[in-house]
Amino acid sequence: xxxxxxxxxxxxxxxxxxxxxxxxxxxxxxxxxxxxxxxxxxxxxxxxxxxxxxxxxxxxxxxxxxxxxxxxxxxxxxxxxxxxxxxxxxxxxxxxxxxxxxxxxxxxxxxxxxxxxxxxxxxxxxxxxxxxxxxxxxxxxxxxxxxxxxxxxxxxxxxxxxxxxxxxxxxxxxxxxxxxxxxxxxxxxxxxxxxxxxxxxxxxxxxxxxxxxxxxxxxxxxxxxxxxxxxxxxxxxxxxxxxxxxxxxxxxxxxxxxxxxxxxxxxxxxxxxxxxxxxxxxxxxxxxxxxxxxxxxxxxxxxxxxxxxxxxxxxxxxxxxxxxxxxxxxxxxxxxxxxxxxxxxxxxxxxxxxxxxxxxxxxxxxxxxxxxxxxxxxxxxxxxxxxxxxxxxxxxxxxxxxxxxxxxxxxxxxxxxxxxxxxxxxxxxxxxxxxxxxxxxxxxxxxxxxxxxxxxxxxxxxxxxxxxxxxxxxxxxxxxxxxxxxxxxxxxxxxxxxxxxxxxxxxxxxxxxxxxxxxxxxxxxxxxxxxxxxxxxxxxxxxxxxxxxxxxxxxxxxxxxxxxxxxxxxxxxxxxxxxxxxxxxxxxxxxxxxxxxxxxxxxxxxxxxxxxxxxxxxxxxxxxxxxxxxxxxxxxxxxxxxxxxxxxxxxxxxxxxxxxxxxxxxxxxxxxxxxxxxxxxxxxxxxxxxxxxxxxxxxxxxxxxxxxxxxxxxxxxxxxxxxxxxxxxxxxxxxxxxxxxxxxxxxxxxxxxx
Length: 754
Fold this sequence. Notes:
Elements: H1 3-33, H2 35-46, E1 47-52, E2 59-60, E3 66-79, H3 80-86, H4 90-106, H5 113-120, E4 130-135, H6 141-146, E5 155-165, H7 172-175, E6 178-180, H8 183-188, E7 202-204, H9 207-211, H10 213-216, E8 221-227, E9 233-242, E10 249-252, H11 256-274, E11 297-303, E12 308-315, H12 329-335, H13 347-350, H14 360-369, E13 385-387, E14 390-392, E15 409-411, E16 418-421, H15 423-429, H16 432-444, H17 452-459, H18 481-490, H19 502-509, H20 519-530, E17 534-537, E18 541-545, E19 551-554, E20 558-562, H21 567-582, H22 589-592, E21 610-618, E22 621-631, E23 638-644, H23 650-666, H24 676-697, E24 718-719, E25 724-727, E26 730-733, H25 734-744
Parallel strand pairs: 2-10
Antiparallel strand pairs: 1-8, 2-3, 3-4, 3-5, 6-7, 8-9, 10-18, 11-12, 11-23, 13-16, 14-15, 17-20, 18-19, 21-22, 22-23, 24-25, 25-26
């Protein structure tokens, strides 16, 4: 073999070996390097990861009673993909939706075809998603729709976990509600790692549900399933299951029993206020006075020792259970319609009202601590003088006191005159003239700061948010020459007036004019005085704990500032405020020393009450009724403030309301708050109980058609001859129910002064 031939053979051998090596390398790459990736891709084609929602944490009251939890509900859903695959024409689709609505309505839930169509158009759901149509449907519908897939393609009935507000509409302005996350929230919210949001997640929208969203929200789990080529699940992979982690629990400072008492009495007072007839102005008998519409009100109970919020109520209210699955557009419009008095508006922290005569406490503080008493025309704090019922500004000069120029004469309510008025008595009888003089003196006397009154009120927290951990709190308003001018410069069209006069200071001194405060601000300010000057941030939440009860975060007393209250001033003011309820000329004496407290006289000897009435004038409307109190006066454990819109004098409506609440709280006779199911049972039983009472007390020989309450399959409340009603497994005794109703709606006179 020639050298040329051998060379060619070697070249061919090298080429062959190179090709073999390349092939081998390729095979190794495919088998070793790509195999794992290929397996993963293959698995992704047959497996699906399903998110398992985590239960939200619970919300409990201070005694550990669950106010908000989670429950299992039966949900009817529809799958748009499967509905499209069925290829129904418009007529057949409409007929199917109508039949679905009829079946749901038979189970006691109102559902319209338009509701179903609206849900199916919801862009937040994908084509292959099961769209929820109705919650809490009857379980037997699972069989009904499951046996008829050809008539109801894509319709399923399954179980789901939803929020449960066990006491219905009780404390709803504190608790808040949850709803599906929207696009804006999805973009703006920044949840902790592991708690990321997905479209259609349920999130807190108001109250504690919103403010403690990061705590209440759990960590979602996941399960892995294998599916066939049609997307049907063939088996689960328990080895890949990751369980969800429930959210943490939030423990409130609120006591649900006191909350129930407060809300019941607040509603009662609203209805009583509406029964009042407008009184004629004796100075102008022909004047048509506004009616007592009483659209709403608020009541706050604080522990002045540490700032704990024991109860916080706003009327009217709403049931957060309605939010499950999202409010319908119609219901949302109703809840936010001013014609319905804005049930979702939290008047306790968002309502801003002129504080009226309750503000005199802060004017008195300014006068004492700024050295106003005993200077110029202002007598000493202990010097008694005669209140003539009206006051003409000294700055107006020598004018006819019976016919002064406009803006010069200011009067008490009804121009009532008072004898022997000093600092303490000015609070007891609520002399406006006493504070008119102080307001003028502060402004015209250069030795006093022009804003002494506003500065004193600010020390007590007026004009600022209180720091409560609830959303949308308003800060009120304290008018001053500076901020009035600034407001004018910012918006001269809306605020054309920018000057400040003596009259403005005079009106401010009695809590009128432009002064605004929320009920919570006012309660916290009085609590600050009650405890000797410690201004706390109100605590609606006590602590956050995990499911094992371990404390994650605790909210102890949060002191914001220390108000310097002179002991001599405090002694005199306490005497004046206690006289409001105990002195026969006190503006709230009637409310605490008659049957206005609910059939008994208030135990003032055991529990002396320091208080101040307030009546705020509102142009074109009836007065706002206000009352602030703390008790026992010298060692206070409770501070209570009530504000009722368009309800009349503070002494006539708000004071009796607070008296009834304080009496129960201080005597530890607060009734237990019923669960929502119990309240429903009482409501359903009432007509039967009325009929039972009429039968029992009448002279007819007829007898009740009594049924055995133990029988099953009884559709509705069942009454027996002894006066016991069974409603959904809850017993209601007619004697107790009727006694409670008669006590609640007892016809009372609601008249008073001041």
